[in-house]
Amino acid sequence: MSDIEHLVTDHFSGHAFPCRGGETLLNAAARSGRQIIRVGCRAGGCGLCKVQVLGGRYDTGKMSRAQVSEAEEVRGFVLACRTIPAGALEIFSQNETNA
Ligand code: FES
Questions:
Q1: Prediction pTM value
Q2: Can you list the domains of the chain with their CATH numbers?
Q3: 64: CA distance to ligand 1 center in Å?
C-alpha cells in the first residue's frame, strides 16, 4: 500500500471516503466507519459488495461470473472486495443484488 489516497464518492448515500493506494474499495468503505457497501465473503464470491462504477479508473481481481456477468462488467459493475481504485472514483453503491 502507498501513501496515495483516492477519493471515492458514492452517489447513492451521498458520502465520500478516501481509499489508500492498493487498498480495495470494500476495505476503504468499511474503514470509513459508515455502512456504504455491504460486506460479505471478501473473496469475490458472494456478490454482496457489488457496486457500479460511474466514473474513474480501477483494477479488478478475479470476480465470480455468477455475481458479475460480462454485460454488467461492461456497464461498470464490480465487486468492491476485488476492486482497487487507480484514481478518484464515482460509484453507486445500491443495486438489485444488495438492496
Ligand atoms: S464481499 Fe463477497 S464478493 Fe465481495
A1: 0.91
A2: 2-89 (3.10.20.30)
A3: 9
Between 97 and 48, whose confidence is greater?
48
Compute the distance from residue 39 Cα to the ligand 1 centre, in Å.
6
Q: pLDDT tens-digit profile of 85-97?
A: 999 999 999 865 5
Centroid of ligand 1 to alpha carbon of 29 (angstroms): 13
Q: Using a 6 Å CB cutoff, which residues line ligand 1?
A: 39-42, 44-49, 79, 81
Angle at 32 between CA 73 and CA 78, to 5 degrees: 5
Distance CA 62, CA 35 (A): 24
Q: Cell for 93?
A: 453503491
Atom of ligand 1 nearest to the CA of 39: 1
pLDDT of 67 above 90: yes
Signed CA dihedral, 36, 37, 38, 41: sign only: negative
